[in-house]
């Protein structure tokens, strides 16, 4: 629903970013979890921006381009770089309304730099949502790329066995797109919630990894020296398990989270329910 008085841009960390009708479920969830973890700075083009673009037949019309340029410049100041590399992600109010959209349009666009490239990526997201079929609108998250040595997708309960006393971690070198897309075989760690230092490990032959480059993210071969090496060290495994449990407690149900790991720092990038265990 188009609400003309709503803001077109809000920032992660602001109270306004808690409203899923304005920023979509994905951004509202991240904003709720921000006090619990490290999270890269980001701005959200709200559903109001989506409706303005739809009404004016073009996301690059001056009423939207100028505010987005100013917001990107402010993000650059917060990041300490002239043109920060960002991920551009769709955040729908009602994901079911995008069921007919091409999968390629629903994927995040990674390592985007410069206002023109950012607006192109935003338009791509908006292209997945046609006003005739998306009655609730969509938002778009523009978020600094987290420094990433290793990525992990973490389940706060075992999705295969429904064991809620275990945390299951899938990890690979580089960005998380390779894990999320299921394109590679990743290491698997099973951690007991009762004792996060006790875990079992299934080491994968990690042939491919996703990395950031000038043209966005792309897959490359994993260096031979890393293919059979554990992607996570024990401290990272324990920290990821503890974060998954904290998020599960905050959300009130088992969750799947995506994280970027850089040394001792764990960045939370995404959170959603484990559908088979929550029924959501």
Verbal overview:
This protein folds into two domains: 9-144, 2-Layer Sandwich (Dna Ligase, domain 1); 150-278, D-amino Acid Aminotransferase, Chain A, domain 1. Strands 9-8-7-6-12-13 form a six-stranded antiparallel beta sheet. It has a five-stranded antiparallel beta sheet with strand order 1-2-5-3-4. A hairpin with a 2-residue loop joins strand 12 (255-262) and strand 13 (265-273). The two termini are 23 Å apart. It is an alpha+beta fold. The protein is built from nine helices and 13 strands.
Number of E strands: 13
Strand order of the largest sheet: 9-8-7-6-12-13
Cα radius of gyration in angstroms: 19 Å
Cα distance spanning the termini: 23 Å
Proportion of beta-strand residues: 25-35%
Q: Which CATH class of the largest domain?
A: Alpha Beta
What string, H for helix and E for strand, traces the elements in order? EHEHHEHEHEEEHEEEEHHEEH
Which range best describes the helical content: under 10%, 10-25%, 25-40%, 40-55%, 55-70% or over 70%? 25-40%
Q: What is the CATH topology descriptor of the largest domain?
A: Dna Ligase, domain 1
Q: What structural category characterises the helix and strand content?
A: alpha+beta
């Amino acid at each position: 629903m188009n609400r003309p008085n709503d803001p077109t841009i809000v920032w992660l960390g602001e109270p306004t970013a808690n409203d899923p009708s304005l920023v979509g479920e994905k951004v509202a969830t991240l904003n709720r979890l921000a006090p619990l973890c490290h999270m890269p700075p980001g701005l959200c083009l709200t559903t109001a921006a989506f409706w303005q673009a739809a009404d004016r037949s073009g996301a690059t019309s001056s009423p939207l381009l100028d505010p987005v340029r100013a917001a990107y410049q402010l993000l650059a100041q917060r990041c300490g770089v002239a043109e920060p590399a960002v991920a551009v992600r769709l955040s729908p109010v009602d994901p079911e309304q995008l069921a007919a959209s091409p999968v390629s349009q629903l994927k995040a666009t990674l390592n985007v730099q410069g206002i023109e490239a950012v607006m192109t990526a935003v338009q791509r997201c908006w292209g997945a949502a046609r006003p005739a079929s998306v009655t609730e609108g969509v938002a778009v998250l523009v978020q600094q790329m987290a420094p990433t040595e290793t990525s992990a997708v973490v389940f706060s309960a075992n999705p295969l066995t429904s064991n809620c006393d275990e945390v299951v971690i899938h990890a690979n070198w580089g960005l998380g797109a390779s894990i999320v897309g299921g394109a590679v075989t990743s290491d698997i760690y099973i951690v007991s919630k009762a004792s996060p230092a006790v875990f079992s490990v299934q080491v994968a032959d990690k042939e491919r990894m996703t990395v950031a480059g000038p043209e966005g993210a792309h897959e490359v071969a994993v260096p031979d020296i890393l293919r059979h090496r554990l992607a996570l060290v024990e401290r990272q495994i324990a920290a990821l398990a503890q974060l998954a449990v904290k998020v599960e407690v905050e959300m009130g149900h088992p969750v799947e989270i995506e994280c970027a790991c850089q040394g001792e720092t764990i960045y939370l990038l995404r959170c959603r329910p484990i559908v088979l265990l929550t029924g959501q």
